[in-house]
Structure formats: C-alpha cells, structure tokens
Please model this.
Amino acid sequence: MKNVFILSMLTLFSALVVSCKDNDDYTEITNVYASKIDSVQIPMDTMALGVTQEMKLYSTFTKACEGIYSYDYQYTNDSVRTVANFAYKTNDVCGDGTYVDGSRVNFKPTKTGTYTFKFWTGKDTAGTNTFLEKKVVVE
Model:
C-alpha cells in the first residue's frame, strides 16, 4: 500500500511538472508612455466652491495595440494644474486606423479663484513640452 501511495504521488508530481510550460500566446503591455491630449471637455468654466466636475481628456490611439492606461494630475501651485494622459502599447500586431479614447478627471476646488489647467499636447520641434490651457473660475 505504501508503494502505491509513493507511486501515485510521483505520477502526480510528474504530471504537474510536464503541464507547466511557457505560454507566450497572451497580450502583454510592453510600454507605458505619455500620450498627447487632442481635446478636452470641461462642462463648466465657472463653478461653485465645493462642487465636483468631471473633465474628459481625449487622445488618439492605434487600433488593436494601444489604449488609455491612466493619467497624471500635478499641482504646480495653488491655482495651476498640469494634466497628461498615459497610454499603453502591447505586443499585439497593430491594426489599421486609429480610435479616440480618454480618461476622466474629477476636479473639486478647495478655494475660490481662477484655476489654470495645462493639458499636455506633446513636444514641439525643439523638444519643449506644449500645453493646451483652459481656465476654470471658482466662485
């Protein structure tokens, strides 16, 4: 009986070892990078203190191999915010054409005044960051 148990354990262990093989047939993210923002939708350019509004940031991606990953929201100072979309690229073969996707950023001001939002639109020919600027007045 002891031999049967040992033999069955060896058989089970061997089956597990053989069945564990590499499978590279899955989609893998190979790169995450800042993606230029093509357009921005801000519902209210004047809003009340304490109210939250959702801004939508749109970027263009290549079909089948790219998409929205996340966004970065930085407080430059009390009234300036810098925002960038981040995209992913996968090991899938890219398709023909592009599509537009984006992220949603909630803004809830903590004080009255004018807020300046700088949305990253890429780099110019000199390599300097460029931005689309929008202002929101909080009363």
